[in-house]
Write a structure and sequence with these properties.
single chain, 1 helix
């Protein structure tokens, strides 16, 4: 079963016959770590990174304005 392989940033996309795709994280989007083929990605992310690395509020903290409306109410177009 052959596949067309392309790289998209930190992802490797394999497209097989009948357009089936397999997407694999090949390097960490938050640091320069390159994953080994069978390395558990979740373990690296859990052990080496915090929510702030992804631009999120630190664990256990609530962001100011978290309950503010996403959009202002206004008239129609």
């Amino acid at each position: 079963m052959s596949a067309e392989v392309s790289a998209r940033g930190v992802l490797e996309v394999r497209t097989y016959e009948r357009s089936q795709q397999s997407i694999r994280l090949v390097s960490c989007p938050f640091c320069t770590h390159d994953f080994d083929p069978h390395e558990p990605r979740w373990k690296h992310l859990l052990d080496e990174h915090d929510p702030e690395d992804a631009g999120l509020t630190p664990a256990g903290e609530i962001a100011p304005g978290h309950d503010a409306p996403l959009f202002e109410r206004g008239g129609g177009l």
